[in-house]
Each structure stands twice: as C-alpha cells, then as structure tokens.
C-alpha cells in the first residue's frame, strides 16, 4: 500500500508488526532462590527489582513481554512465591504445573553452584510429563570456573545445560538463542489451528466469587462431554462442556475445583493461575461477586484479560442476594470502576439459582464475534475519511495532523494501524476508538490502535 509521505516498506513493516497474532509463551520455572526472577528481569531487559527480599511478597504481575533477536514472546515468571504450608516440593510443583501448562516452551532454572536437589528432580518429572520443549539453564555460573558445575547438570537427563549468570548476563544470549529455537513462531494453541475444535473459555475471578459453583451448575445441568473431539488434546485440567448446543472447553478447571487454600502466597498463586488460564483461552468470563463492592483485585483481573488481548464477558454473580439498595450502588460502581470496559457484554447471574445461565452463551458468542471482526480496508477508509472531515484533529502549533490512511492489521483482538501526517493526541485516539466501536461493533473485545506518524 502506498501512503502519501511514507515509504512502502515502512507501511508494510508497520502493518506486519501490528498484525502479529498472540505471542508464544515461555515459562521460567525452578525451585526458590535459583534466580528465576533475576533471569526474567534479564530477559525482559529491565533492571528494576522484581526480586523481592521478603519471602511471600505478593506480586500480581506474572506475565511480561520480551523480545530477542527480533522475535517477541511472553514470559511467565514463577519466582514470586516462596515455600509455604504445602511444603517445598508441592509448592514448587503446583506453581510450575500452572506455568508449564500455559507455556509453549519452558526454561528450567537450576542453581549450578548447589547442584541437583530432590526438588529439581521433582520438577524434571513434571517437565517430562508435560512434554513441552525445555531449555535447561545452569544458573549462577558467574565465571569460567563454574562451567564444570554446569556440565554436571547433564545428569538431569533433559539435555544440554546452558551455563548462565543471570546476575551478570554471562551466557544469557546463547541461552536465549536456544529458547527461540524451542519456541514456536506462534503459540501452540494458535487460535487459527484448532479449526472446528471447541472454543476455549477461562472462567476467572477472585476467590469466593462463585467460580466453582458456576462451573458445577453448568457442568451438571448440561451434558459433560468426556469423549475426545476432533481438534482437542486431552488435558485433564480442561473440561469439555456442552452449553447452548455447542461444546466449549473450559480451561484450567482443575485449578477451580481443587480449591487449594494456602495461607501464604495465596494471592500470588491465584494470579499465576489466572494468568495461565487467560493465556490458554480465547475468551475470559470474569466473575464478579455482585453482593460485595467491586475490589481492586476484580479490577486487576479485568486488566489482565484486557492486556492479554482476550475477548471478555463480565458476569455479576450472586444476583439472588441483591436488594434494591445494593443494586443501585452496584450500578454506580460499575460505571466508575469498569467504565474502561463498558464494551464487555454483561450478564447478571446466580450460580445458586441458575438465574440467567442461558444468557451466558450468547454473551460469549457476541464477545468472540467482536474479537474476530475484520473491517475491510475500503470500508475502514471510507469511514475514517468521513470521520476526519466531520471532526478534524485540533490544530496544534499552526498545523493540523491528519489521518491519511488506516488498515486493520489483525484480529483476535482487532488491531489497527493508522498513518498520520502529525502527532495524534490521546484524546483524539480515544475518540476514534469510540467511533470505531459505534460503527463496527467490537462488543466484548479490546481493540489496539497504533499510529504511525510521517517523518
Ligand atoms: P528466584 O526465587 O528463583 O526467583 O530467585 P531470585 O531471582 O530471587 O534470586 C535468588 C538469589 O540468587 C538473589 O540473591 C540473586 O541475586 C541471586 N542470583 C540470581 N542469579 C544469580 C547469578 O547468576 N549469580 C549469582 N552469583 N547470584 C545470582
Ligand atoms: P470460587 O472460590 O470462586 O470458586 O467460589 P465458590 O463457588 O466456592 O463460592 C463461594 C461461596 O459463594 C460459596 O459459599 C457458594 O455457595 C457461594 N455462592 C456461589 N454462587 C452463589 C450465588 O449465585 N448466590 C449465592 N447466594 N451464593 C453463591
């Protein structure tokens, strides 16, 4: 495409970059103190301390975007949580399990100075079972004298140990090259590949909002499909459930059903589980306890789904308990707390009484349709042309930036690139997003708009 004032390569490059599909996911696992967080910081190229001194410190963020040798991917860090009531092996195993499940490849970090421990062996068993590509990181090899320690890790039987010093950066480049070889270009669960396979739903929400009750309700009332269906891999943590005549895959239901209650680190554990489920799903059904005030934790979960670029439905549960007063305040809270996601279809349900369960599927279908919407370039530019003519960008410094051309570079979620003659202000970008939504729908999906400005 030729756009006035832009090189053809720039235009094509911008469209390709904006059009990238979901990124492959790399999980970094290992027992506490081997240097996972230090390594993650290294990988994402950030110096600020993710490494916490206090054990059991809650961290919400577990997924980060990274780039190496021009390829982008996501990193799931499991370093935020220390040993707790479960005992060390179970704790490490539980968090590694979630991370591995959501990942397309795994970096297994071992402290080469310490050597192989029983806990490391336990993780190796998990890795074998999962069958995902593994890159073995022999960490804390700060100098040549540590190389022998790294070599000793061949004994784990999972391939070549890569000697690394996460602290100083030594060897990380070679290890990342190996990571890129292990990572598929697009996620394993690439949204395009499971043609005809069931759509994947992550049922998420903070503890006690009613996830397990809702799952039981839908799974009991509808036929639970246990046989294998074309395009599905059997995964014991996922459940196939028929709803509204369609089979859906609820991901990570084991995490919902297991109901592991931990004293320390429970929040972190919940965040990790939520992030992993969102990564595996196409659509997030976010459950909110309508009987209580919308909390910061609710908002974080919504943000997680939006940032992951997933389709989204918000279900307000425990509707059976609401009196008129609470209903009034709930509406005000939704306006102020969830104004940014007013595009998400909303259902008011009760997992206890079954109220409005039948509205869940249409809402999910609406969200998925919005998520997959593609606007033809001709139509988009006709729309943009009229919009810009009727509502031009405010004049700044005697100049009026214009949108010259736009195209939708990708879907799932919809991603747009706009080419402009000058800097487009945030307010005007939001205005364009609003009008795009009014014109083309996009219910239930975040949309990305990037703007390229002519040099
Ligand atoms: P995590 O619990 O696995 O996330 O481990 P951390 O990243 O919190 O690191 C645990 C400790 O090991 C910290 O004190 C780090 O500074 C230290 N550490 C991490 N990587 C290296 C390394 O490559 N060399 C050395 N000498 N120390 C490291
Ligand atoms: P989870 O932690 O999100 O899986 O939440 P649970 O499904 O365990 O539910 C937490 C509590 O809320 C339980 O005592 C449920 O019986 C109760 N609960 C769940 N859904 C509803 C509902 O729709 N109405 C009412 N009144 N209680 C509910």
UniProtKB/TrEMBL annotation:
Superkingdom of this protein's organism: Bacteria
InterPro entries, sorted: AAA+_ATPase, G_ENGA, GTP-bd, GTPase_Der, KH_dom-like, KH_dom-like_a/b, P-loop_NTPase, Small_GTP-bd
PROSITE patterns: G_ENGA
Binding site for GTP 1: 30-37, 77-81, 139-142
Keywords in alphabetical order: GTP-binding, Nucleotide-binding, Repeat, Ribosome biogenesis
Binding-site positions, GTP 2: 205-212, 252-256, 317-320
Family: Belongs to the TRAFAC class TrmE-Era-EngA-EngB-Septin-like GTPase superfamily. EngA (Der) GTPase family.
Purpose: GTPase that plays an essential role in the late steps of ribosome biogenesis.
Protein name: GTPase Der
Gene giving rise to this polypeptide: der
